Each structure stands twice: as C-alpha cells, then as structure tokens.
Amino acid sequence: MLLQLLTRNARAAANRCALFHARLVVPALLAGCASTPLPPWPAKAPLPPAERGRVVAPAPIAPPAQALPVPGPSSVAPWPSGAAARPAEDPLLRPALAAQFPEPMVRYRTPGLSEGRRAFTTNAELADWLGAIAHAHQGTGTRTQLLRLGPSQQGEPILALVLTRAGGTTPDALEASRRPTVMMVGQQRGDEPAGAEALLALAQELAGGLLEPLLDRINVVLVPRANPDGADAGTPETAAGVDMTSDHLLLSTPEARALAELVRDYRPILVLDAREYPAESALSDALHAQPGYDALLHYGTAANIPDFITKAAREWYYEPMAASLKAERLRSDWFFASAAGAGPVTGGSVLPETLRNVSGLKNAVGFAVASRGVGLGRAHVQRRVHTQVTAMASALRSTAERSSSLEQVRSFVARDTSAMACRAQAAIDVAPTPAQRDLLLLDPQSGAERVEHVQWDSPLKLRTLTSRGRPCGYWLAARADNVVDRLQLLGVQVLRVAEGGSMLADSYERSGPGASLQRNTIDAPTGSYYVALNQPLAQLAVAALEPDSPAGYVARGIIDDVGQVARIVSTPSLVFEEPN
Question: Nearest Cα to 443, choosing from 288, 276, 547, 255?
C-alpha cells in the first residue's frame, strides 16, 4: 500500500513518535511529539578511575552458592590442541603468580567445568544443557524458550534462551510485559570460553535458582555461544576468518546477522558482551609484568552515543559492577589493550562496529566484561567463570532496580535523537584523547604487585576529527539492496520511493577522509530508497551512510559507488511505501 507517512517499526511504536507525514517540515513533525521527562538522577558517585588505576583491597568472600547440577553424560570431543592445558613450566602458571588468582569458594558445574575435563562444553553439550532448561517444568511462573537463531557458517546452531515471567516468550509478549529486557552474549571469539560457561551457569540460576526472583522485574535473553565454529576449533575467528566482534555494523557473517536480528526483535535495554582478555601481551613483554586484573570493563564509547545512555552505563552499571567484583575479592578496572612496540595502551575501540558501541547507537546500554583468560587454557577457569557470573549478576540486579528509569531514559533519547534531523551536528570521525593512567601489574617471578604509570588513549573523552550538520535523511539507489537489508536487520526504518520525484541533496564526489560534497538536485526514481533521520535509530544510519565514516558502508566497500547514496538536506515531498 502506498504511504505518505514515514511509519515507525511496529515493535518500537510505544517509545516513538506517531507516524510522520513526508511533506511536513521537521519542526512541525516534532511539535507533535510530547516530551518524556527524565527520571530524577541520583547524586553522582565517583567514577571508578580510568585515568588512574588502583589496587583494590580484598573484601570478605560471600558464602558459596548452591552447586549447579550437570546433565547426564554425553560424548566429549577432544579440545583443539591450540586451547589445551598450559604446560606446567609455563610462566603464567608459576606458583607465586597463580597465588594472586586463588580459586573461588563457589564451584560452578557445567559440562565443560567437570573435574578431569580437558575440553570446555562442546556445541552438542551446550544444546543439551539449554534444551533441558527450556523443557523443564517451571512451577513458579517462569517461562523459557530455546530459540534457534540460524546456522553458523559450518552449520552449527546458534542458540538463545529466553527467560521471562511475561505472558509468553515472543518479542510482543515481552514488550507487553513492560519489563526491560537484558541480552547477554558469550564467546564471540572461539578462544574465549569463560563467557559461555558462565552463561550456562547463569541460565540455571535464572530458571529455578537464586537469580530467578529477578524475572519479576526483567526479561532475559542469553546467547552463550555466538561463534560455535570458532569454539569448536579453539580459534577466535569465525569459519570464514572474520573477527565477528567488529562485524556488528557491516553484518558480513551469519553469526553477526543472527545477533542483530535478535536485538532488533527483542529490543534489550542492556546488551552485555562476555569476553576474555589475554593474560600476557606486548605490554607484558615491554614491562616484564602481567596484568593483575580479574576483569576489565567498558561500555559504549562511539561517536554520537546519547549522553544519557553513557551516564546510565557509568553510574547504573559500571560503578555497581566494580563494587560487586570488589566484594568478591576480584580486581577490576577500565579495559585496556596493548599493541606491539612502546606505544600507548588503548582503552577499547571507538568505532561503531562492536556490539557495545552499536548497542549504544541503538539507545541501549552496551557493555563488555573481559575476564582474564586468553592464553590460559583451563588454568584458573573457576575464577574466570566466577568473575563473569559476578559481573552478570550485578548487571541483572542493576537493570531490575532501575527498570522504570531505564525505560524513561530510552524513551527520552529516542525522541531526542529523532528531533535532531535536519538541524543538529553529527560527529563523523572521532579519536580517543591522549592521557595517563595507572595499571596494576604483577611480577611474573614473585607475584608481587606494582603500579605502572603509562600513556593511554582514553575513550572516555573523545576528540572530534570530522563533523557536519545532520541531513534530513539519506537517499539510496534502487540497486543498493545489500545496504537496505543490513539497515533493516539493524532495526533502521527504510522506505521505498513509490512515486519518483526530485530531492535537494549533497552528493558525494569521493569517499574516505576529506570526502567532498556537492549541493544539487537529484532524481529519486521509483524503486529507490529513503532513510529518514527523524527516527530513534538515526545514529546508526549516520555511522553507516556518511561517506567518510571510518567504519561505514562506503569506507568498508558495502557501497562500492558513491553515486548510490546522497545526503538529503530538506524534507522530501514524495510518496513512500514500505519495502516488501
């Protein structure tokens, strides 16, 4: 049916402005959107220092939780040699260093954590474990549903588990419950198994365990293993050799597309990425020491993530999580990584391509928890899993405690983002700010702690390298179906031109840094597309479609001809329809 309305996605209608008439100017459109007041914000607590690290004093360990049952025996495939147990003479396993990472009092029981195992949980065991939870009778009103998101590149199922006390497990049912949804993802890299094991343990605690009461206030969607092929091979990449942790804007892998579709449909307010960081790196070689942290934490830091989303991530998630980890005698700080050579350490990517950054551009809190683990094999695995479970449980509690406020914040930023079309500035390319911080390091021989003052590129304060005024939207050529498909998977609304006409546009003369724009009138033939920016996910469209966006579709070759896209600088008077 032909439409003259820029209709919103039905799933998000409750938090978005009503349908907009394409011929109306933007101020008139926005006048019809009632403002949503923000909740009272609590007095600001100090941000756990990223500029200057600290040594966390131990606190009493909480009593051990109830041990988790293990499903019946199943076949165990040999773990790939690259992920086998570390040799006894390995410097990471020296007694003095290992003493800094003692076993937790609580013991987690999943197939991969069984005594005497060499392998972590196999794909078949993971499916059995989740299936047993999904099919178990829940007498407390908890509903569970196992979702098959699609096959991996090698044909392995990518599985998600929905846990809720809503009237059903569909996206509509969870939306109707008026409870926020949390999504947690593990093992995007196949050589980072602790996140998957932790999510299997967490699933059982939510389905009849100590965490189940939280489902009175939140819904939970768990994806324990996003990269089953990499997990099977013990390698970080997918079967095609792609690092899917940086594929959440391009969506070049079926694994990333499966996650994007799940996020689009269930609209989580929090997306937590369970990762692991290398126990030794170039920094270890340069400083002759090992990182002393159990967990490195970071939230979304890309350009144009709404300020209130960042504020919620910092005050409502980062700070309580750091406190929870400290209470369990687990050391944490802001994420850092090191490159070869003597350059500064980095604080995590600021490109709009990671799960946490793309989630932030979707007006959700994107968060990553990296436990110490890559390169350790099975060493300290109980502590690594305990670190993840502690962080995950903190995130669930924070969401339950702030459920109403989080939805108010998301509604506010959705309207505020829509209101920026045609008028506000957008940051196109940003960089972290050079700064200094302290790192807690451990002597590999004695295990002694020391604090090292280092240069780092801080993502907590971004420098804008390129910015320009926001267009009203973007025109896409009819042949840009591959772009439209990606945008729709991300949840961005795309309309098709039903009756051709003209548009005032800035056309791209070339791509990449220093891209130049030429103001002219372009023909928009029937069958071409229009992406309006008066929609809540406009920030994603900017990241994908600006010609010099460093992670955008032009720079990464998804759009191979700059003539396929143009910035529309006035509200078009055309007739649009929904694509099939």
Answer: 288
